Prior knowledge:
single chain, alpha+beta, 5-stranded mixed sheet, 7% strand, Tetratricopeptide repeat protein
Amino acid sequence: xxxxxxxxxxxxxxxxxxxxxxxxxxxxxxxxxxxxxxxxxxxxxxxxxxxxxxxxxxxxxxxxxxxxxxxxxxxxxxxxxxxxxxxxxxxxxxxxxxxxxxxxxxxxxxxxxxxxxxxxxxxxxxxxxxxxxxxxxxxxxxxxxxxxxxxxxxxxxxxxxxxxxxxxxxxxxxxxxxxxxxxxxxxxxxxxxxxxxxxxxxxxxxxxxxxxxxxxxxxxxxxxxxxxxxxxxxxxxxxxxxxxxxxxxxxxxxxxxxxxxxxxxxxxxxxxxxxxxxxxxxxxxxxxxxxxxxxxxxxxxxxxxxxxxxxxxxxxxxxxxxxxxxxxxxxxxxxxxxxxxxxxxxxxxxxxxxxxxxxxxxxxxxxxxxxxxxxxxxxxxxxxxxxxxxxxxxxxxxxxxxxxxxxxxxxxxxxxxxxxxxxxxxxxxxxxxxxxxxxxxxxxxxxxxxxxxxxxxxxxxxxxxxxxxxxxxxxxxxxxxxxxxxxxxxxxxxxxxxxxxxxxxxxxxxxxxxxxxxxxxxxxxxxxxxxxxxxxxxxxxxxxxxxxxxxxxxxxxxxxxxxxxxxxxxxxxxxxxxxxxxxxxxxxxxxxxxxxxxxxxxxxxxxxxxxxxxxxxxxxxxxxxxxxxxxxxxxxx
Length: 637
């Protein structure tokens, strides 16, 4: 026993000595270790496991942060950003790319800054934010051109080609891919040359040039055999399988899609796996193999939901709808068809905003053109009249000046009318943005009840949802609704949300007794976003004593209506901290604040707004208080 104790004591002393010596590792040793970890991470990413690559790279980051050397910090952050990109963790990838940029800037390495900016463009493309992706790609191109980094231009051309391919501008896509191919061949870059061949094959496939597309894919496989990139092989197998499916050669399609599935499982490429399972599901559907089709489509749906890959959701849901329609299971077919339409409509919000931006840009360009033409006319008139002093010319000049003033006044009036019209359109866009987001979450909750065989809860939820949706649709067409209608909608909304949460949520509406709720008018659905934030971001769903209080009163002068919404959640300051870690922004709050700005733009009577964390008032209290005032309006006026 004594000998055992001595042995343990010796081991403890020995381990402590090793730990102390490790603390004194020289800076050069730390740098060598960082380099070794980063090299290992790179090898693992290419040939083995993404999870292992992330773990090894995290060790490199810890050591690099000890050195505080931007040379190693920049490399480690960038490598981890790449790891998370391929693993499908977009938020973490954004985080590390944004950490890498200032480190490269501190080193004065413009080329590396350009590379990271290009990678951020890829992240935005993966989220279907094509306008943001284009912005970063063009910035990347500008940096490379300024630095005369010709070798890197091929990757930028390739990215631009990808964007044009997505929006089906295939001729421009082919043009950029050919530029990229020439650049990669010039610099003997086999991997990127293979990718360029792959992209050209995809364009030919979309143009129904199947034989030409297969030629490019075979060239890509041949080029990739020189380096053996499994990731590119998985993409090529998928594209070839897709080509065979498009050409109705379903058996060959399944062979290549199975190869792609096997590689993407091995590489843990979960985002890519969604598309493979979708294509396998639709191919088996063409072959009337309903069992296999259902298996792959449901697996694709589950993965897409886990990874929040909304862009591919409509195709999966429509595929399931077609499957069940073929099997005469019309109830399931209707459910998935409705879900696909709902998700597709919610994604169309992006195109609505883009069209709105295009309309505003067109308007501004036209206005500048008119002003330029008017200026030219005035200059010509003045040149013609120089040197002439008789009375008729003076009279004519006065008439011209008056005409110019009239034109300017008319342009000013038309501009104000256009501004009001644009604001009205933006108001409608903002209201329509709220509905798809809420409806999708509600339908998901109903689906969950049905899958859990909670039919009575599902029926109750569906009835409450139908009532609320009807109220929202009726109210969204109006600029103002009665206070009574607004409160009824809020009660329906809170009641509906309570069905989704495990704990009960109490609420209280306290309204000034002197207010006639049927006559007083308020903007519709203005309070709802803040109640939603209290429930979701305020963490009331996890609070067994959750409570929301809404007070409506008159101001001291009696000309303003004051809304005060208070909850006992975690508070706005803590919610912001948690949201910043997830890089999440509250869309509901932004929409509400935009509506306040639009209202103040259009009205002479202004709306005032304030959000306060309760801890700033009393450290013993928690929660958030939102207060806003609006001018009192009634239906009689």
